[in-house]
Amino acid sequence: MPHLPEHLLAGYRNFMSGRYLAESGRYRSLAREGQAPETMIVACCDSRSAPEAIFDAGPGELFVLRNVGNLVPPYAPDGQFHSTSAALEFAVQSLKVKNIVVMGHGRCGGIRAALDPNSAPLSPGDFIGKWMSLIAPAAETVSSSTFMTATERQTALERISIRYSIANLRTFPCVSILEGKGRLSLHGAWFDISTGELWVMNKETGDFEKPEMG
């Protein structure tokens, strides 16, 4: 039995003979000099919405954090384990990124779970349920609307959760201070898996708009 699934080994062979061969100099430079991405992306774990593919990014261009539902918790220096906060701290304080983009997507399973209060936990720990409770107030408000279809409620909460995460980003002193100084910008985006459309959050209104492709 192989130590890795064969499809991964096949993909690696293609990587070595394709992308790595074409960009070997860049990889060697990154190994020697370290990474210096200007943008951090907070995205969902969903395998259908990979930021590097969506933004056609090369090695070293994006610092990507992925978790269920692309959520950012509020600042909580309580001595517990905080994977998302640790990645954010490193991106802002060490890498000194200039942009943080919270990118949600359509048909998100985590958001769907948040909208269904009767969904059974996947395990006794109910880690997903606890994690998605970060947006419980918004989920309760959206799910109570009888004027929207289930699909509309899902899309609404996917986009609202992005605004929630951006608000939580600002509870981190390192983020709020640098944003206030104009050295860090926060952005929101929503990706539609079925059409490939990217909707960008208007910073003034909070609305999501399709950017002009030119």
From TrEMBL:
One of its GO terms (molecular function) is carbonate dehydratase activity. Zn(2+) binds at residues 44, 46, 105, 108. Gene3D superfamilies: Carbonic anhydrase. Binds 1 zinc ion per subunit. GO terms for biological process: carbon utilization. This is Carbonic anhydrase. Keywords: Lyase, Metal-binding, Zinc. Belongs to the beta-class carbonic anhydrase family. The keyword Metal-binding applies. Transmembrane segments: none annotated. Its cofactor is Zn(2+). InterPro entries: Beta_CA_cladeB, Carbonic_anhydrase, Carbonic_anhydrase_CS, Carbonic_anhydrase_sf. It comes from Mesorhizobium amorphae CCNWGS0123. It catalyses: hydrogencarbonate + H(+) = CO2 + H2O. SMART domains: Pro_CA. Reversible hydration of carbon dioxide. Its EC number is 4.2.1.1.
